[in-house]
Amino acid sequence: MSLLCGFLIFVTNFFFNVISPFYLENARGLKPNLAGFILMAYPIVQVIVAPLAGALSDKIGPELITFCGLILILLSQIGYMLTDLGTPLWLFTAIIGFVGFGNGIFQAPNNTIVMNSVEAKDLGVAGGMNALVRNLGMVVGISFATTVLFAAMSHYKGTKVTTYINGQPDVFIYGMHVSFLIAAIICAVAALITGYRLIKRPTQPTKGKS
Asked: Which CATH architecture has domain 2-200?
C-alpha cells in the first residue's frame, strides 16, 4: 500500500509541475526568473523538512507521519483550487512551501515503510520498485494533468483547446481549478489508504505489506 500511496502522490505533485508555469508566466505575466524563484519554495522546504521527518519516524514510527504529510498535501491542493488571478503571490508561494512541507514529511517515512516491509535480501528489489513507482507516477502525472487541464479548458471554451489562450486567462483558471480538484481527489485516496493502514496497525502485521 505504501508503493500505491507513493505513486498517487507523485501523480498529484506533477499536476502542479505542469500547471504552475502556465499560471505564473502566462496568466500572471511573471518573468521566467521570478516564476522560478517562486517555484523554488517547494524543494527548499522539502530538503529541510525531509531529514527531520526521517529522524522523527525512526523514533515514533512512520505511519502517523506519512498520514500527516498526506493531509498537508491535500489541504495544499484545495489551496490551489481556490487560487485565481487576484491571489497574492506571497500566498501562492506559501501554498507551494506548504506542499513542500507535506511532501517532506511524507516521502522519507513512506520509503521507510517500503524498505521495512521486506527481508534484508530483498532490499534491492524494494528499492527498485520504489524508483519504478516514482518514475511511473511522474509520467502518469504529466500525462493526466495535461489531459485534464486541456479537456476542462475545452469544455469551458466550447471548442478544442490545446494550449494557453492569450487574453483569456479565465479559460485557463477554470481548467486549473478542475485539474487541482482531480489532484485533490487522488491525494484523498492516498490519505484514506494510509489512514486505514494506521487504524489497522495494532492488529495487522506490517511484514510483507507495501
From this structure: Up-down Bundle (1.20)
